[in-house]
Amino acid sequence: MVKGIEIRDAHFPGRAPIDAYGNGGFRFADMSHRGSILCLPSGIHGWEPKTLPILTAADLSLVLEQASDIEILLVGTGTELRRLPQELRDVLRAHRISSDPMSTGAAVRTYNVLLAEDRAVAAALIAVD
To answer: SUPFAM superfamilies attached here (predicted)?
Structure first.
């Protein structure tokens, strides 16, 4: 019996710096991904926030599942800085995660620096064109 193509959730099982961003995606670890990503202790995951441009706790459920390994969450909000809703900031704070929204470009650069310093950092990065 011939097996068809198996579609799996996008996931790179390791921590890696982001080499490039733009054109609707990201490059990292000699790979590329089209769309938004979550950079977490468990690896880099494809991510489709459901409530853009406003993020909710449901959009960051995978972040909250790994909260014990995350101190700082950088949120790349696209080309423009957007504040996180107070309700989301409260949920993150309850999980002892400091959140820092910024443009996606700034978040990528900051993530790479903190990752190189071996900090407990995660990033939610919205793809930009």
So the answer is: MTH938-like
pTM as predicted: 0.90
User: Is residue 85 scored above 50 in pLDDT?
Assistant: yes
DSSP string covering 93-117: HHTT-EEEEE-HHHHHHHHHHHHHT
d(CA 108, CA 86): 23
Residue recorded with tokens 């490039």 = 20
What CATH number does residue 45 fall under? 3.40.1230.10
41-84, pLDDT tens digit by residue? Answer: 999 999 999 877 789 999 999 999 999 999 999 999 999 999 99
- Is residue 10, in this structure, part of any structural domain at all? no
Query: Could you tell me which of 120, 123, 71 has the C-alpha nearest to residue 93?
Result: 71
Tokens 């961003």, residue? 21
Range of the domain at 41: 35-125
The encoded tokens of residue 90 equal: 């409260």
Structure tokens at 75: 């949120």
